[in-house]
Amino acid sequence: MAKTKQQHRKGVIPGWGLTMGFTLTYLSLIVLIPLSVIFLKASTLSWEQFWQIVTTDRVAASLRLSFVSSFIAAAINLVFGLLLTWVLVKYDFPGKRIIDGLIDLPFALPTAVAGISLTAVYAPTGVIGQYLDRFGIEAVYTPLGVVIALTFIGLPFVVRSIQPILHDLDQQYEEAAAVLGANRWQTFWKVILPSLVPAMFTGFSLAFARALGEYGSVVFISGNMPMKTEIAPLLIVTKLEQYDYEGATAIAAIVLIISFFLLFLINYLQWRTSRKYFIH
Amino acid sequence: MPQMGTKTKKQPLVGVHTESAWIRFILTGTALLFVGFFLIIPLITVFTEALKNGLEVYFASVTEPDAQSAIRLTLLTAAIVVPLNFIFGIAAAWCITKFQFPGKTWLITLIDLPFSVSPVIAGLSFVLLFGAQGLLAPVLDSLGLKIIFAVPGIILATLFVTFPFVARELIPVMQAKGSEQEEAALSLGASGWKTFLFVTLPNVKWGILYGVILCNARAMGEFGAVSVVSGHIRGMTNTIPLHVEILYNEYQFTAAFAVASLLAMLAIVTLIVKGVLEWKGVVDGKG
Amino acid sequence: MNITNKRKSKGLFFLLSVITSVALVLSACGSKNESASSSSEGDKKAVELLNVSYDPTREFYQDFNKAFASYWKEKTGQEVTIKQSHGGSGKQARSVIDGLEADVVTLALAYDIDAIADTGLIEKNWQQRLDKNSSPYTSTIVFLVRKGNPKGIKDWDDLVRSDVSIITPNPKTSGGARWNYLAAWGYALKKYGGDEEKAKEFVAKIYKNVPVLDSGARGATTTFVERKIGDVLLAWENEAFLAINELGKDQFEIVVPSVSILAEPPVAVVDKVVDKKGTREVAEEYLKYLYTEEGQELAAKHYYRPTLPKVAEKYKDTFPQLELFTVDELFGGWREAQKKHFDDGGIFDQIYQPK
């Protein structure tokens, strides 16, 4: 195993130096250097100050809300996104191409517009909200509203991650499975799904990460009530309004660290599962 | 019709890879319901609001000089940002999927990081770096360069926000493809660039396409980070999303949604582009 | 060996060309911007001002800029164009601190200009440089209620009733909302003869009736007007008038409480910037023009209370008389108020602290 790895690196494929060099340079210039400034700024606080800021009830509540609702939204997207991709790739129905194009809408729409439109739709006076209201479900200005907004903005990640893989998935495997007597469900579960798992992980982690940082659309639909529907990015803005750059960067740093480790975990899992399925 | 081409190619054994009609119906129905709730109804809201006062008002609000300058700035930004992140995406995906090295998961996670950074913080980090009180302020001052509250700042912020798209789309695709084909081409004597152009690229074109589409859409739609570094000067440093916000805050709801609908239409334009590429792909594949 | 070298140099060339093109584009954009904003000598060349302002002044400055441009042209023969930037007051101040080259700032509260002054961009005594604490126009906080005032809301006391739902933005993110909060606090102080504990209880009860804390003033207006949430919107007087005119004359009415706060949105020339750009003369004149009859007329038309007695007299029917207190009188200035009420752990936070 170790030997093949080594061979691989030194093997026939060229471009290691160039691509790795470029990747690291560009990554440092655009992402790492700017982000390190955040930590630099936060580090002007003493450890006690830092700890005090990030453990106050309000900050803790907002972090909890941000992480939990991002997770729920990413999970919803994972399930429905997979279904949607499946339907888009495998079936034919009128209007399919338009729906395919609409998937990117959450990116194209400025987040503020998305927030306003979603609020309008899900408010008790809105197209969908009035029915929810009848069942006593309050969507806007509750944590549910936060989840709705985050689901909206995360959907394209899951669909667009799975789509190319499903698109290119060799029909032969499915056919082979069918010939060998597997029923459709078995084929999906044992043949198709495993090859989609890495892409699903990717989609999930991207949707989750994106949801954590989202500000623009959520502030319109959440109601911003302290302790209840206040998300972490809003607290960052709140600190900035008080010219408290250190406090703002402290919260930002804690969100960054936690999300880095969550992403790391997801990526690690993805790498392991993909090694299992794509070992050569 | 492009679909038909793919369809006939894809369905030699009818019944084997498709479900019974009612399962298909239920799955499609559920998917459409989800899309309806989360995408179509909000989209219709945008367009009905935009056209509430008639086409004339609609065109007036998208052709007004401030809107035009916002559109120009947004296009310029995307034209610079998308190619750069495209090149980065290919380089990163190449070195991550074709080679084994320690710390690979770390690298992938670092590439993901810009997504989880609140856009406000992304903007702020550039302010802390290039702003008047920032770390690089003395250098910029002596060079007479302005980055923040000018176009370069907007481009940098957009680069940051859309940084991972192409790379993240490509990595799973290239990973699924493995390296055998490249190895074969290389052992047959093809050069590295040739192998890349004629073996790798055609293999991952869907991943690239989706990555570029997403990158472009997000580059044009980004609000939070750009808002921090733009300075909101009308007719100068406003992008389309910022212009939408301004209009909205001026109670010009119709105009705001009209300009926003431009961005929604962008999604539909990219769809057409994608359709054309798909169609070309089918034709080339046959010829 | 030869081939790999060639390959490498090709790649390197590619990399280099990418980097140079980025640098070129970035610097081109940068320098273009630079030349656009610094085309101002003392002579008759066209001059450009940047006025960095807060949200509700958009409509007013649109008109005022036109008026000033023709006034300046007539007086000096010089063309002047005024660029506008609007946003939340605190955010705008931060942009100026971080390098947005504003010639003048016209913000929602003195605290934000103080913050700019703290960095040395504006002289510390800025508030004494112009009349009326550098506030050429004023406003106050009023109630916007639904047509016919179904809940019978007449004064601050009605806001603590449990059946009344109030819309006001978050004071921590919105400058306007701080005026709302202080207005309520001031009323309570007067009512309870200066008892701070009672005042805190009163304000806490008001905020208990707030179902949504929007992040900005205009967001709050939208919640009230478009989503039809809440019975009363606490708003700047000019915003309330604007909402009625723009969004539905037949749907809302204004209720003026017995006591409210005198909101003084201040203006200042940004010294460092005007000296660098050589625009001091025109920038100062711009602000002074706000105090002239023409400027005051325009302010009154956009429902800011004029300070010039002559114009105030003319518009006295528009603006109902009520007892007004200032921040300096009751709170000892903005810095004090900010620290005590709105900073982290301040009274506003305590209201929301779980018991």
From TrEMBL, chain C:
Its main location: periplasm. Pfam families: SBP_bac_11. GO terms for cellular component: periplasmic space. GO terms for biological process: sulfate transmembrane transport. InterPro entries: Sulphate/thiosulphate-bd_CS, Sulphate/thiosulphate_BS, Thiosulph/SO4-bd. It comes from the Bacteria. It is found in: Periplasm. Keywords: Periplasm, Signal, Sulfate transport, Transport. SUPFAM superfamilies: Periplasmic binding protein-like II. GO terms for molecular function: molecular carrier activity; sulfur compound binding. Belongs to the prokaryotic sulfate-binding protein family. This protein specifically binds sulfate and is involved in its transmembrane transport. NCBIfam families: 3a0106s03, PRK10752.1, PRK10852.1. This is Sulfate-binding protein. It comes from Aeribacillus pallidus. The lineage of its organism: Bacteria, Bacillati, Bacillota, Bacilli, Bacillales.
